[in-house]
From TrEMBL:
<dbReference type="InterPro" id="IPR002053">
    <property type="entry name" value="Glyco_hydro_25"/>
</dbReference>
<dbReference type="InterPro" id="IPR051595">
    <property type="entry name" value="GH25_Enzymes"/>
</dbReference>
<dbReference type="GO" id="GO:0007165">
    <property type="term" value="P:signal transduction"/>
</dbReference>
<dbReference type="GO" id="GO:0009253">
    <property type="term" value="P:peptidoglycan catabolic process"/>
</dbReference>
<dbReference type="InterPro" id="IPR017853">
    <property type="entry name" value="GH"/>
</dbReference>
<protein>
    <submittedName>
        <fullName>Lysozyme</fullName>
    </submittedName>
</protein>
<dbReference type="GO" id="GO:0016998">
    <property type="term" value="P:cell wall macromolecule catabolic process"/>
</dbReference>
<dbReference type="GO" id="GO:0045087">
    <property type="term" value="P:innate immune response"/>
</dbReference>
<comment type="similarity">
    <text>Belongs to the glycosyl hydrolase 25 family.</text>
</comment>
<dbReference type="GO" id="GO:0003796">
    <property type="term" value="F:lysozyme activity"/>
</dbReference>
<keyword id="KW-0732">Signal</keyword>
Length: 129
């Protein structure tokens, strides 16, 4: 189920063309049963960015180009925290495999509701927004 923000992609390109060196992007994962897997969503987002020539969260030509922020906010996350934890790990690991610099966008309340406040999954090495 591909759903990409074409305006957001164009804004990334516009920012680079305007001379901005660090351009971030935000991924709002789809977590309902109708959605693709976490890894597939990352791959599809990567393909959409690459196909349009938009670059974020990567080192490109020896330049750091910003962060891909994975949004962990209550929209339609399942109540199963174990499932959610694995989904988050899959999002981050696939993005890192594809060369992205990854950050987590969340709050204490959101994180606690979705994954549990006590769980970091080894992701505490990532920037938090």
């Amino acid at each position: 189920m591909e759903a990409h923000d074409s305006e957001g992609i164009q804004n990334i390109k516009n920012a680079h063309e305007a001379g901005y060196k660090h351009v971030d992007g935000y991924l709002f994962p789809c977590t309902t049963s109708k959605c693709s897997s976490a890894k597939t969503q990352i791959k599809e987002a990567h393909q959409a960015l690459s196909a349009s020539g938009a670059e974020i969260g990567k080192v490109f030509k020896n330049k750091f180009l910003g962060t891909l922020w994975v949004n962990i906010e209550r929209y339609e996350w399942p109540s199963d925290k174990s499932y959610n934890r694995q989904f988050i790990l899959d999002l981050v690991s696939e993005a890192e495999v594809l060369g992205y610099t990854v950050g987590i966008y969340s709050s204490y309340y959101e994180w606690d509701t979705i994954a549990g406040a006590e769980w970091s999954g080894g992701l505490n090495k990532l920037p938090l927004w």
